[in-house]
């Protein structure tokens, strides 16, 4: 049975008030991740796919982790650098551009991935899919005043 909260979350995601509440959402999600060892996230409770992305800091060289909504695309993970509609891209996008090797954790299980940023026709096709998945991205794009970067993460074979 599908989580009925997913449709509600998608509708809520098109409301500017959600962007205003971003700090509270991020803090709550971090706490849930810590308390439940990555098995539970706020986005996951809403019936949406979430992962924890760990990149290498482009300047520090240190691991940097963040919890993100992702779009499942076959065996790949699609991430959108919306940054809650802020004018600047999120730090993880710069880190992936500098080093596309990263780790994702889903419900506490980790996998090595390699990222590639979409452009041109491939970006346009994926953007259409992303808006069907999460309509709020269009509101965030307008608020940010920039094209939102989109990355496809593919698992690296061990």
Report on this model:
The protein has one domain (5-155): Pnp Oxidase, Chain A (Roll), CATH 2.30.110. Strands 2-1-5-6-7-4-3 form a seven-stranded antiparallel beta sheet. It has seven helices and seven strands. With 158 residues, it is of the alpha+beta class. The mean pLDDT is 85.
Summarize this structure briefly.
Helices cover 39% and strands 27% of the residues. It has 158 residues and is an alpha+beta fold. The chain has a single domain, classed as Electron Transport, Fmn-binding Protein, Chain A (Pnp Oxidase, Chain A, Roll).
List keywords for this structure.
single chain, about 160 residues, alpha+beta, Pnp Oxidase, Chain A, 7-stranded antiparallel sheet
**Major sheet:** 7 strands, antiparallel
What string, H for helix and E for strand, traces the elements in order?
HHHHEEEEHEEHHE
Terminal CA distance reads: 33 Å
Helicity level, as a percent range?
Answer: 25-40%
Shape: globular
| Unreliable stretches | none
How many domains? The number is 1
**Count of DSSP-assigned helices:** 7
Proportion of strand residues: 25-35%
Main sheet strand line-up = 2-1-5-6-7-4-3
CATH class: Mainly Beta
Compute the average pLDDT.
Answer: 85
CATH topology descriptor: Pnp Oxidase, Chain A
């Amino acid at each position: 049975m599908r989580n009925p909260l997913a449709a509600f979350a998608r509708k809520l995601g098109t409301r500017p008030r959600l962007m205003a509440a971003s700090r509270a959402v991020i803090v709550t999600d971090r706490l849930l991740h810590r308390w439940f060892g990555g098995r539970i996230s706020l986005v996951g409770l809403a019936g949406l796919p979430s992962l924890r992305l760990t990149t290498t800091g482009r300047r520090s060289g240190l691991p940097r982790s963040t919890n993100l909504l992702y779009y499942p695309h076959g065996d790949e993970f699609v991430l959108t650098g919306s940054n809650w509609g802020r004018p600047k891209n999120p730090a993880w996008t710069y880190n992936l551009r500098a080093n596309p090797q990263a780790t994702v954790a889903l419900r506490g299980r980790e996998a090595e991935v390699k990222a590639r940023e979409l452009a041109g026709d491939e970006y346009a096709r994926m953007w259409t899919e992303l808006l069907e998945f999460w309509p709020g991205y269009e509101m965030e794009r307008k608020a940010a005043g920039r094209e939102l970067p989109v990355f496809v993460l593919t698992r690296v074979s061990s």
